[in-house]
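Tokens as discussed.
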């Protein structure tokens, strides 16, 4: 595997940070957080760069690394087995070439961080990740 495990770990961490956020639950907030029960704490705002960071990180990877990231997702999701790594990477390259990008697929799956970690585990490449 050419993509660095540390890179995957960083992407997993950021995907989990995105996954715990929720929609705007307090649209007319202007009050003190103590008064409104801190409902805005896990809400994405205009100054939140986590999703944009993930997009930038994935876009900054070379074609091979993006394909391997998607292959990890497929293995973690159970679409393919670890023994099919080469096939998973080829399939991911085909998806990338067809315009179904890694960014879209990873941000579209609500549990993509967990699935990437499971893919690493299946390949015996499990780093220590902070638990969400």
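Sequence:
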């Amino acid at each position: 595997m050419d993509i660095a495990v540390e890179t995957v770990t960083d992407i997993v961490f950021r995907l989990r940070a995105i996954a715990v956020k929720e929609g705007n639950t307090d649209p007319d907030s202007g009050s003190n957080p103590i008064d409104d029960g801190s409902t805005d704490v896990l809400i994405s705002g205009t100054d939140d760069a986590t999703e944009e960071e993930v997009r930038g990180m994935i876009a900054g990877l070379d074609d091979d690394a993006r394909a391997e990231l998607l292959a990890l997702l497929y293995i973690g999701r159970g679409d393919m087995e670890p023994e099919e790594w080469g096939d998973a990477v080829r399939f991911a390259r085909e998806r990338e070439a067809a315009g179904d990008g890694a960014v879209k697929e990873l941000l579209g799956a609500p549990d993509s961080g967990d699935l990437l970690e499971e893919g690493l585990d299946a390949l015996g490449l499990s780093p220590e990740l902070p638990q969400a």
